[in-house]
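Our collaborator T.R. sent over the components below with a one-line note: 'Predict the complex.' Nothing else. No constraints on interfaces, no templates requested, no preferences about which chain binds where. So this is a plain run: every listed entity goes in together, and whatever single assembly comes back becomes the starting point for the next discussion.
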Amino acid sequence: MAKGESVAGSDIPAGGFVQLLTPDGERVDTVTTADGTTYSVDFTDEEYRGLYRDLVTVRRLDSEAVALQRQGELGIWASLLGQEAAQVGSGRALRPQDMAFPTYREHGVLYCRGIDPIMPFGLFRGVDQGGWDPNEFKFNTYTIVIGSQTLHATGYAMGVTMDGKTGSADGEAVIAYFGDGATSQGEVNESFVWSGVFNAPIVFFCQNNQYAISEPLERQTRVPLYRRAGGYGFPGIRVDGNDVLATYAVTRAALDNARNGQGPTLIEAYTYRMGAHTSSDDPTRYRIASEVEAWKAKDPISRLKAFLSKQKIAKKDFFAEVDAEANKQALDLRERVLAMPDPQPVTLFDNVYPNGSPEIDAQRTAFTEYQASFEGSAH
Amino acid sequence: MITLGKALNHGLRRALEDDPKVVIMGEDVGKLGGVFRITDALQKDFGEDRVIDTPLAEAGIIGTAVGLAIRGYRPVCEIQFDGFVFPAYNQIVAQVAKMHYRSKGKVRLPIVIRIPYGGGIGAVEHHSESPEAYFAHTPGLKVVTCANPADAYTMIQQAIATDDPVVFFEPKRRYWEKGEVDLDAPLSGAFPLHSARVARPGSDATVLAYGPMVRVALDAATAAAEDGRELEVIDLRTLSPIDYPVIFESVRRTGRAVVVHEAPGNVGLGAEIAARITEECFYSLEAPVLRVTGYDIPYPAARVEEEYLPDLDRVLDAVDRSFGW
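Returned assembly:
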């Protein structure tokens, strides 16, 4: 796409998307959609370097997690490999007051929220089910049932409106993450209906990574996903999900529209899951190597690196320093994951209810007595 | 004297008055006041942000309630009929029930899910079911049901006030039954939400019932008294957790127990209660715990529902069988 060229539409032709950085690292100054919306970014050199650092760091942490799983230290891991730009671009587009509702793969968004990356490892190591406070971090607990969190996000966004926190530049917005497979879920479609009807301040951020475990996009839809939004009465737009700049620009604009009281937007971040669905998956059974290779050429990190080099925004020693720093963070993460204590068995019974239950109390007591009956024996 | 339905309406009104974070949401709950008029006039008095007519989507009602609760609201959701709860089942059992545990106690979801339930109103399919066991089986949910106007008024307020998620079953065929309700009574003086009630004391056998079946059990006790048998009727009120101490105390005294519910017997609450009585009161029992329940069939057509529903005669028959052991 040439500099400053228009793309055809908020109704972009199939295959088209908002792109501000080509796979070769060429910057597109602005993209204007047919409805007159212009997307661009105006980053300082420092900010460009910061985005690069984010991308490299979240990929490095992810690879450490994959290794930890392979070494038996995590029960399972859902890798974000290939989706770094979609997550960093949208994650950095959030303002501090915004609330995010992730799936179980949004480790990059979590990182961009300034959260200690170890936070979700309890879940994947099997020492807890998450265990964090969504309101403290403005980041909901990971949701594993596909699509359920989009309704939570919608309800939360309705609450933002009810609290009078929309309609101004410092209003609050909500972002709901989900994937291409989730768009087939009734609950996701209900969340589109509800957010439209209630004009909720929400951005639906769909990472279309082309596969729902083994099932390709064609099994989920016969129209480009972003076009679904039209039927619900709000704008939909497709962005190059491997382009951190475009993802940032499109998400920032949609969030600001939401906080200003203009209601929901569906963003389809067109990307690719380079790894397996999770560590339990074998993608060689359902996709061919040449497809993966083709997407490798669109890698989100190499294109930003090419841009930074060409524009002399960063030099070799910067890239080396980022790699070294990411490596250090990964090794620190590894150490802390290995040091995570297993929970005490009796904590099984904690937090079933805010106000407890005499039945649970009785079971806790019986469990404790049963455990104690082995004390001193050589079992 | 007011009806059970009106008592619920008063209770909801008082909850809306007491806490600005309470919101009512559901299908037709606004202008119409609900198909049973339980939310009558509440939207008019509290506005469309407090009493929300929702899209026709049960999963959406509960799923958005989760988000509202994370935001600090206290949603009171109406599921229009028992048989319509299943589209919301995922949100209730996988999200509402688990969020507190998942977050290690950092997220509370003070959500009330009101469900008119049970048969006896001559309705078409999906309007007469008793799905309480599905929810009582789910850790993380509390499940209660009221049987008279006074309890309805108190319990709906308690359910809204507690931070536990509560599935609140309303005996729809008793909506029009009247009783005395002290509308000015403070909640602080009331019985705990999760407590059973001895609805009629007796010494010869214990009949355990809840919701719409309490009336049936009381009528059976009146009839039995004419034959010289004093039945103790316990209104369970709370189905999860069940208030077992009250049950055990009674059964140890009477030596006989009959559990009554409309839901099918197979793997129903009666089975669990019978097992627990057997575990705890074995040496006091003069006979096995007997159950009077709906049959293990889909809820039948209206013209034969009276054959399906436990009634006075079936309860007395079970009492007779207990004594004949």
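Summary for T.R.: The mean pLDDT of chain A is 94.
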